[in-house]
Write a structure and sequence with these properties.
Structural class: alpha+beta
Number of strands: 3
Family: Belongs to the ARG7 family.
Number of helices: 3
Pfam families: Auxin_inducible
Helix content: 40-55%
Radius of gyration: 26 Å
GO biological process, one term: response to auxin
Order of helices and strands: HEEHEH
InterPro entries: SAUR_fam
Strand content: 5-15%
Shape: elongated
């Protein structure tokens, strides 16, 4: 007599839906140093560098978020801001960050050049 395989699932093997859900959750994790936020009426998802949240425009948005949604928000932080404006803020912040990196690099070069010039000047005296 042939026996049919049991229809009872083996709990030791992860089922396909559980694996898919686990993968979906893993993909949703932001990169290290980033914070997930939902923006605008359409609640578009963004992953924002955490250090940007301390800049004035983002502090204002966080204040608006607290005013509209409260401090007890669960899940991803919601920001009441039109998506196009939020994109412009991110782009401007990226430009500022690039400018800061350039200036800091230039500062180091200028400092080294200045120190070398001072050393040459003192050698000639």
């Amino acid at each position: 007599m042939n026996r049919r395989p049991s229809k009872v699932a083996d709990s030791s093997c992860p089922s396909a839906p559980n694996v898919r859900e686990s993968l979906r959750r893993r993909r949703r994790r932001p990169p290290k140093g980033h914070v997930p936020v939902r923006v605008g009426e359409e609640m578009e998802r963004f992953e924002v560098r955490a250090d940007l949240l301390s800049r004035q425009p983002f502090l204002e948005l966080l204040h608006l978020s607290a005013t509209e949604f409260g401090y007890g928000q669960r899940g991803v932080l919601r920001i009441p801001c039109p998506v196009p404006l939020f994109r412009r803020l991110l782009a401007a912040s990226a430009d500022v960050a690039a400018e800061e990196v350039y200036l800091l690099g230039s500062f180091d070069d200028l400092l080294l050049d200045s120190t070398a010039a001072d050393q040459r000047h003192s050698d000639h005296q």
